[in-house]
Amino acid sequence: MTVLVHTHPLVLQLENDLLPLFRAALPPLAAAAPRALASVFAFSSGTASAFQDYHFGVSCLLEDVPDDAPEEVALLVSVTGLESGARLSAQVVWGQPSGQVEMQAELQADDLPTLHAALPRLLAGLQQAASRGAPVI
């Protein structure tokens, strides 16, 4: 059974590929950033339908951050525009108030091989960002 329902074949592929990989990344993240709470997420979104876009990732919530600093950094993989030609994006991004993109993968349409090739670098970037505890200034 899938986590997300009413899914497009690309979403099912991403779910099957990414969620186990992201779960396996949690112990190394915890070791590298013991003051961060890391978790895996998957959800759908959209304006016309709740199933237009899908997002998968790893979120690291940081503790003891100043009020004006982001308390989260995440690896976010999104597939958007399923009704009109799917587009993939992958990035390590800080939460608000920063919203700073730490790193991203250059992907074309539904280019799964390039996404898979970029994931080790993105996971390492997430681990470094969570260990550092703040965006690069």
Features:
alpha+beta, five-stranded antiparallel sheet, 2 helices, 33% helix, 137 residues, globular, 5 strands
Structure description:
It is a single chain. The chain is of the alpha+beta class. The protein contains 2 helices and 5 strands. The protein has helices at residues 9-32, 112-132, and strands spanning 36-45, 53-62, 72-80, 87-94, 101-105. The chain has a 5-stranded antiparallel β-sheet, with helices on one face. A hairpin with a 7-residue loop joins strand 1 and strand 2. The longest helix has 24 residues, at 9-32. The mean pLDDT is 89.
Write the layout of secondary structure elements.
Elements: H1 9-32, E1 36-45, E2 53-62, E3 72-80, E4 87-94, E5 101-105, H2 112-132
Antiparallel strand pairs: 1-2, 2-3, 3-4, 4-5
Helix pairs in contact: 1-2
H/E element sequence = HEEEEEH
Question: What is the residue-averaged pLDDT?
Answer: 89
How are the strands of the biggest sheet laid out side by side? 1-2-3-4-5
Number of helices: 2
Q: What proportion strand?
A: 25-35%
Structural class: alpha+beta
Task: Enumerate the spans where pLDDT stays under 50 for 5 or more consecutive residues.
Answer: none
Helical fraction equals 25-40%
Q: State the end-to-end CA separation.
A: 43 Å
Largest beta-sheet characterization? 5 strands, antiparallel
